[in-house]
Amino acid sequence: QLSQTPGPCSPIFLPSDDEWDWLLAKTWVRNADFYSHQLLTHLLRTHLFGEVFAIATLCHLPGCATYLFKLLMPHFHFTLHINTLARSVLINPGGLIDKGSGVTYEGLLLVVQRGLEQVTYTSLCLPDDIRHRGMSHVPNYHYRDDGMSLWEAIESFVTGIVTFYYGGDAAVSGDTELQAWVMDIFTNGFLGRALSASTPAAATGCVPSSLQTVAELIKFLTMVMFTCSAQHAAVNNGQYDLGAFVPNAPSSMRHPPPCEKGRAFLQHFLDTIPEVATTANILVALILLSSQLKDRRLLGQYPEEWFTEAEPRRLIRAFQGQLEEIRDRIEERNHLAELRYNYLNPLETENSISI
Predict the structure, then answer these.
(1) pLDDT digits over 217-266, tens only?
(2) HEC states along the chain?
(3) Number of domains in the chain
(4) Residue 350 domain flag
(5) 270 in a domain, yes or no?
(6) N or C: less crowded end of the chain, CB within 10 Å?
(7) How many CB atoms lie within 10 A of CB 62?
(8) Sorted alphabetically, which PANTHER family does this protein's record hold (predicted)?
């Protein structure tokens, strides 16, 4: 159903309908998903939050004197740079999204604003999100399986680092720089809302404005690092693979949604999806977004060697060993699979949002 209001002009389309009616209805759904994915799942929930995390780190954590700075900075590599480029050519007035999609610049701002109102801490923490969405036991859900492996590896690494530097909960709650960092993220990232305005408190988790325990700190740091690495890889790296077939990710539709069945046909369908120039521009963007930088830094690679103590260096090696095991499992599965899922392979997952 292609309207929010059921009625005679909003039929329910079925697979048993005429071929062109069904294809057109599915393409309209994919058009809506294009906006949701690009503006919310991709832009808001990785790029913009990654920028919030980066700015808060630069403002409140005192450089290489703190372990938090050393831990987090590799996960912000090139993030401010790529977001600045996006604001100048992609999401700016007159930019690619403005010209090449059905969302104007003003519409883009409105969609992101509404999307931010729906963001919860639960939705940013993969184990909680999977449970909340009822996706724990769906078979062959590789995003969940590979993502959980990476979440657990990051969490294990973070646990080792945090427990090495903090003696207990009192050290966390008493760390004024840490508390200022979290408050900055809460204020400027989540606009000071502890809960989503439209979601009951019982159904979601609070966005923290402070961290009082070691366990809370470990979870928050894991969320930040996962968002900037694995989550971005999952929602970015397959964009060309899934969007090169235009009906699967049309950036705009040139006719209104159908109000009745039996009126769709080949030429009408071709006249509805984006024309050639728009298609070419969007595909170029998807190719660039899905490309790999020559100097990319994969998850677990720390060429700057911020940490000098023996224990953090051992933890990094253990983390890298876990990532190698995850890589081997994914590649073994893909070797036998008819449809490969490789977007969360550690060999394809960058430390940061750099493209």
Answers:
(1) 999 999 999 999 999 999 999 999 999 999 999 999 999 999 999 999 99
(2) CCCCCCECCECCCCCCCCHHHHHHHHHHHHHHHHHHHHHHHHHHHHHHHHHHHHHHHHHHCCHHHCHHHHHHHHHHCCHHHHHHHHHHHCCCCCCHHHHHCCCCHHHHHHHHHHHHHHCCHHHHCHHHHHHHCCCCCCCCCHHHHHHHHHHHHHHHHHHHHHHHHCCCHHHHHCCHHHHHHHHHHHHHHCCCCCCCCCCCHHHCCCCCCCCCCHHHHHHHHHHHHHHHHHHHHHHHCCHHHHHCCHHHCCCCCCCCCCCCCCCCCHHHHHHHCCCHHHHHHHHHHHHHHCCCCCCCCECCCCCCCCCCCHHHHHHHHHHHHHHHHHHHHHHHHHHHCCCCCCCCCCCCCECCCCC
(3) 1
(4) no
(5) yes
(6) N
(7) 9
(8) LIPOXYGENASE
Q: Is the residue at 162 inside a domain?
A: yes
The structure tokens listed for 10 are: 């909003």
CATH number where 157 lies: 1.20.245.10
Residue range of the domain that includes 242: 19-336
Q: pTM of the predicted model, to two decimals? A: 0.94
- Give the pLDDT score at 62: 86
